[in-house]
Specification:
The chain has helices at about 15-25, 35-45, 70, 85-95, 120-125, 145, 160-170, 185-205, 210-230, 240-255, 260-265, 270-280, 285-300, 305-315, 320-325, and strands at about 5-10, 30-35, 60-65, 75-80, 105, 135-140, 150-155, 175-180. The protein is of the alpha/beta class.
């Protein structure tokens, strides 16, 4: 009888916890690392994560600990599920504890402020891991639905196809269908930029601008994501797949999306601080919109929707003014 795959999931937020369920349901032995000991204790004693997925019973082969060394020991896959802007500091502390040869898997959808590094680049930089040891899971994966074992598909991306296939096998369940992809750049950009477009669509929804506006923002948002991807060497087909269009549609159309909900509150007239106060979990696009725009400028790529989101979220521009300016931009061909 073969030894079960061992996975460490570092982070007990809703997506980290839900993905731990997926791995366990696929037959892995999963150790879930919690920053706070009381969360680990709750998981072990009640089989639930009351803070992030209340009422969802976790499989028996998920156990939790607040000891990073214990979680990381002998892990075949180390799944990183912390807020993207905290990855560097967390991973620096964990790197000496990593099992030799463990594959580092990013669940994070963001771009690091200041460096404009994608999460796989931060992982490679901090852990000194080669591309064959860095993978990404992305796609239309709203944590609450996956925790309810509702059908979903995803992309597991690694430049090494064989590693992607190993990860695919480790998280393939009757309700979670992963596809492999070797375009890590495109998959990560799709996940990071869709959070920004999700904010834009949420703002439009909060303002009551209608479904035509939503459809236009989704489509033009995908266009600017693709432009950036092409400039960075991504495969354009990635953006019509699960990591691009699939994730974008789920984020822009669901009340379960943190970024969409955050944008909706802004569009209704709440201030940034008021919106942050009522948001219990990290809406990655709030910080990443600045680093995505920085990345676009470094590559000479025009991203007007991203610029508009930054102006509203970080520069205090009233949404009504920002939308008027976006709509009054000079006319141009669609495919440009």
């Amino acid at each position: 009888m073969s030894t079960p795959v061992r996975a460490a999931v570092m982070g007990t937020g809703s997506w980290g916890t839900a993905f731990a369920m997926v791995l366990a349901d696929a037959g892995c032995d999963v150790t879930l690392w919690a920053r706070r000991a009381e969360v680990a204790d709750a998981v072990n004693s009640t089989r639930t994560n009351p803070d992030y997925l209340p009422g969802v019973e976790l499989p028996e082969n998920v156990r939790a600990t607040a000891d990073a060394a214990e979680a990381l020991a002998d892990a075949d896959f180390t799944v990183l599920a912390v807020p993207s802007q905290t990855l560097r500091a967390n991973l620096a502390a964990w790197t000496p504890l990593l099992a030799p040869g463990t594959v580092l898997v990013s669940l994070m959808k963001g771009v690091e402020l200041g460096t404009t590094m994608r999460m796989s680049e931060v992982i490679a930089d901090v852990a000194k891991a080669g591309p064959e040891r860095v993978a990404v899971v992305t796609g239309p994966n709203l944590a609450r639905e996956i925790a309810a074992r509702m059908p979903a598909a995803a992309v597991v991306a690694c430049t090494d196809e064989a590693v992607a296939q190993r990860l695919q096998a480790a998280c393939h369940t009757p309700y979670f269908r992963p596809y492999t992809n070797t375009d890590v750049v495109g998959c990560e950009l799709g996940g990071a930029v869709k959070n920004v477009i999700g904010l834009a669509v949420g703002i439009a929804d909060g303002m009551g601008l209608g479904d035509n506006a939503k459809g236009s923002l989704i489509t033009r948002g995908l266009a600017e994501t693709t432009r950036l991807g092409l400039a960075m060497g991504a495969d354009p087909l990635t953006f019509s797949g699960l990591a691009g269009l699939g994730d974008l549609v789920a984020t822009c159309s669901s009340p379960l999306s943190r970024n969409h909900t955050f944008g909706t509150n802004l569009g209704k007239g709440m201030t940034l601080q008021e919106t942050i106060a009522v948001t219990k979990q990290t809406a990655e696009g709030v910080k990443s919109c600045e680093s995505v725009l920085d990345l676009a400028r470094r590559h000479g790529v025009d991203m007007p929707i991203t610029e508009t989101v930054v102006a509203i979220v970080h520069e205090g521009k009233p949404p009504v003014v920002a939308v008027k300016e976006l709509m009054s931009r000079s006319a141009k061909p669609e495919r440009r």
